[in-house]
Amino acid sequence: MCVLFQYNNVNVGYFTILLTINGNYSPLIFHKVLDIQKIRQDFPILNEVINGKPLVYFDNAATTQKPLPVLNALTRYYEHFNANIHRGIHHLAEKATSAFEASRHKIQTFLNARHVEEIIFTYGTTDGINLVAQSYGRTFLKAGDEIIISTMEHHSNIVPWQMLCEEKGCVLRVIPINDEGELLMDEYEKMLSEKTKFVSVVHVSNALGTINPVAEIIEKAHAVGAKVLIDGAQASSHIDINVQALDCDFYVFSLHKLYGPTGMGALYGKKDILNAMPPYRGGGEMIKEVTFAKTTYSDLPYKFEAGTPNIADVVAAYTAVEYVETLGKKQIADYEHELLVYGTDALQSIDGLRLVGTAKEKVSVISFVMDGIHPQDVGVILDQQGIAVRTGHHCTQPLMQRLGIPGTSRASFAVYNTKEEIDKLVVGLERVKKMLS
Amino acid sequence: MTINEKQDELIEDFELFDDQLDKTQYIIDLGKKLSPIAEEYKTDDNLIRGCQSKVWLHSEMRGDVVHFEADSEPTAQISKGLVSLLIKILSDEKPEDVANADLYFIDKIGMSSIITSRRAGGLASMIARMKEFAQRAAEKVS
């Protein structure tokens, strides 16, 4: 039984009352309902008109749009407390430093990391992976050691490891997938041995939307003594992340895919491992003392944060995470799943359209190809109707090679998208078909 | 007809359409009329890099004019249409005219975003290749 709960004439949620067989009521369960129209008002860019049509933004896997609180946080920073951090003794420097460090605490809680110094600010996911490959990889891996990645990795989780393999003589191994776009876990298990020293896999595939069984991947890698990095670029806005429960050694993500600013991300690493790793870049902030004879390095997290960091964006990241937490990860995920189910049904009804990536566990990403139509043409004609999708190989060329296609068109949904927009996509795709037949 | 006269004529044709989608439809239809490039010219050397869809361009001197033939993979119909426009404007013209051509028609027919964006289209590299060939030919003549 459900009871709608209203406050100031706004539906804020409903209660579910469960009746058990013996007639006893279970405790009330309160479900928060997201008011999507109200959420849309937080994103001014959604009012843009493209080619005379209202923008339908379905390229959220590339980057999400930013809500007003995040935009305001950026302005507020520059208007009221812009200063270089950790150095100045003056009031502004102190304010900027404490806002900067508050973001570190926010991200610590967001990932459920044990220690705040386990959070290193980076320029994004790619930067985080490079840091680990260069600092951990060059120090602890040697010729003949095996690094495992998967077929569905983004280039940024392939190339840094290939560069390391070239330099150190390590061997790169790749977990295969099935035609639905799911990892073949049996094959992964067969690959693991005492030679396996590092496993780096994506939490959620950017091209297919597949959610990988990362807890199982981590557990099995640890059983042979390998360290594990999880690329959470696509997961952070959709899935609850708990690095302690996952027990991963490293977790990386970007804020710009989490309703936050571009050029800013975070690397989580277990404290003892980060402590054992040498600095990756040299410069200011990361030093304890410099003489021409010898330099000693700062402690965590600063030894990995050389130079003046991206202070404003780090500060605004606090607000982005807070925004997501206020809406509720679970509520966002539930609503996006509703869009995924609706969108999957709607697109499947289009004759000549084939979905690419039909894993059982997916986030709100729909990749597809259309008979005899180039993905680029799909993108151009949709754009002319105001609909933004991504087309091409999605920086996953090896995955496209495995699937035997040059690329796909991809619609990816965020919390501010609606079923009406999906209906517009269907109409848009029918137009594509008509124009190119 | 000079390159600019050809461009002006094309711009006039496109002015008949108010809607960008109708312009695109017209480009698609023009692409269908493009005579296919000979198989022998579909070589790796002739493949234009940086295009999301495959485009081949063959350039040669025919008397005192540069002659171009080009084609895209069959499913990339908008690329094919744009390729046909570039051929129409630039082929069989004097090398120095091609090298110095100001292709203002691209913007006027509302196609600059498709032609210049690096990932979606990459036809800018085809134009660069055509001009480069013409430039070299012009230098040889003088």
TrEMBL record, chain B:
It comes from the Bacteria. Residues 11-132 form the Fe-S metabolism associated domain. Pfam families: SufE. Belongs to the SufE family. This is SufE family protein. It comes from Runella salmonicolor. The lineage of its organism: Bacteria, Pseudomonadati, Bacteroidota, Cytophagia, Cytophagales.
